[in-house]
Amino acid sequence: MLGSPVLWGVIALLAFGAGYFFRERFAANRASSLEQKSKLQLEEANRKAEAIILEGKNKALEAVEAAKREERERQAQFTKIEERVLKREEFLDTQLKDITAERSKLGAEIKKTESERADLEVIRNRVGGELEKMAGLSREEAKAKIMEDIKERHNEELAKSLQKLDKERFEEINKRALEIITTSVQRYARSHVSELTTSVFLLPSEDFKGKIIGKEGRNIRALERATGVELIIDEVPDGIMISSFDPLRREIAKMALDKLIKDGRIQPAKIEEKVEEARNEMNKRMSEIGEAAAFEVGIYDLPKEIIQLVGRLHFRTSFGQNVLTHSIEMAYISAMLAAELGANVEIAKKGALLHDIGKAIDHEVEGTHVELGRKILKKYSIDERVIRAMEAHHEEYPFSTPESYIVTAADVLSAARPGARRGTLENYVKRLADLEKIAGEFEGVKKAYAIAAGRELRVFVIPEKIDDFGALQMARDIASKIQYELKYPGEIKVNVIRETRAVEYAK
User: Fold this and answer.
1) Neighbouring-strand partners of residue 239
2) Strand spans (E) along 291-435
3) Residue 352: what are its φ and ψ, rounded to 5°?
4) What gap in Å lies between CA 130 and CA 132, rounded to an integer?
5) CA distances to 60, 62, 68, 81, 164 from 73, in Å
6) Beta partners for residue 445, in sequence order
7) What's the whole-number mean pLDDT along residues 167-186?
8) Which residues on adjacent β-strands are paired with residue 243?
9) Exposed/middle/buried for 205, CB within 10 Å: 0-12, 13-18, 19+?
């Protein structure tokens, strides 16, 4: 029993030694395996590196060969060019020799001709002197006597011949002018639609009419006041008729109504907001219309301020004719007339397009539209030749250039087309504009709108400047001035409106 622990210890020691031996052997084998693997990877990397180097050498050789080939081709081209240059130099040398020889020959002939001319002059003078001695008259006296004899004998025939020449010349000029004008007008044919003073705005349903009218009519009154138009509710089914002599006001009212319908909230505060948005959008739209008009006639160098005023002409009429359409037509006709007559096409075209530019602001500023147009064009440094071309179309200024005659002729041709203009409508529009102008001359007036076909004048005053009694007095004064200064059928209702608003913000 005592030998058993010793035996077990010997066995454990042997087991430990065997385990240690096998672990060392395994570690050695593993190290040998890793070393072998690393060696293989190193060899693989070397092979790849050699392959890459070989491939790089091949590409470098290819690039060198390509460069050499390109150099050979370029050298061949240079050689061909050099040969052509040499041949051309030889040709030019030959030509120069021929020209030099020809010049020498011509010089000799010129000298010979001058010598012969001098000889002829000597002979002519000698013969003339002999004739003068024989006739007893000098050369000038003989010429005068011959002319006097011819005049006495053929005076009547000369007068008839001159009259015939003048008549034929006049007929030829008229015929040529008629051909140029008819050709230009036929080449440009645009239909004309006379502008009306009303527009129709269609509603999604009849229910919106009540919303637009509002409680006790406050919404429709706010909309009419903000836009300066008259809204007629029951004239059109599923729609509202917008009445105003100013197309710009009608368009702003249509845009504001469209925004209100889409928003759904129709109330005085929202109406003012949408009308202001519509005015801002209208300014952008006028610029777009002006750019399109200038692009259509091929004018690309006008300032953006002038472009916007051109777009504003789309919302102006002259005797029922749209002013922008009229100006575009004039630009085309002027360009064709200028081309036929040999005048400056660009100047004539610009002068025609901008001839009525003053009408874009003549509602707001004193002066004729021609004078206003000149000031606008000078302000924005438009070519002086363009200003001279446009300023004479109503003969307020003299015709100073050929283009000024062309622009005036184009104005007459465009306005004289059948159906282009209506005088009665223009007189009606002018009467409404005069009504608003008279009201605007009174101190304290904020806005004035002529509505109901000129039968009513609505005047909005500044409440801080005009009290209730002052509003009554102003209504009488405006009515008296209208009676004194204007001619009109029927009667005109002068409605002076004074409204006080208190606005404060909670912050």
Assistant:
1) 202
2) 317-318, 321-322
3) -70, -45
4) 5
5) 20, 16, 9, 12, 77
6) 461
7) 59
8) 198, 230
9) exposed
Exposed e or buried b for every residue in 161-190, given b needs 16+ CB within 10 A?
eeeeeeeeeeeeeeeeeeebbeebbeebee
Q: Cα–Cα distances in Å, from 357 out to 148, 296, 371, 497?
A: 60, 17, 10, 34
pTM, rounded to two decimals? 0.48
Distance from C-alpha of 273 to C-alpha of 283, rounded to nearest angstrom:
16
How big, in percent rounded to 5, are the helix, strand and coil portions of the chain?
70, 5, 20
DSSP 484: H
Neighbours of 208 (CB within 10 A): 18
| C-alpha to C-alpha distance for 497 and 468, rounded to whole angstroms | 9
Distance between CA 321 and CA 192 in Å, rounded? 8
| Amino acid letter, 108 | A
Q: pLDDT tens for residues 131-151?
A: 666 666 666 776 777 677 766
Q: Which tokens in the block code for residue 326?
A: 């009229």
Q: 214, 266 in Cβ contact below 8 A?
A: yes
Under a CB-based contact definition with an 8 Å cutoff, are residues 336 and 406 in contact? no
For residue 107, which amino acid is it?
A: G
H/E stretch holding 114 reads helix 3-135
The SS3 of residue 266 is: coil
Q: How far apart are the first and last CA of the chain?
A: 106
- Strand order through the sheet with 493-497: 445-451, 456-461, 493-497
**360 near 324, Cβ under 8 Å?**
no
Residue pair 311/290 in contact by the 8 Å Cβ criterion: yes
φ, ψ of residue 393 in degrees (nearest 5): -70, -15
Give, as one character, the DSSP assignment of residue 314.
G
To the nearest 10°, the Cα dihedral for 383, 389, 395, 400?
90
pLDDT tens for 223-279 read 888 888 888 887 777 788 888 777 888 888 888 888 888 888 888 888 888 888 888
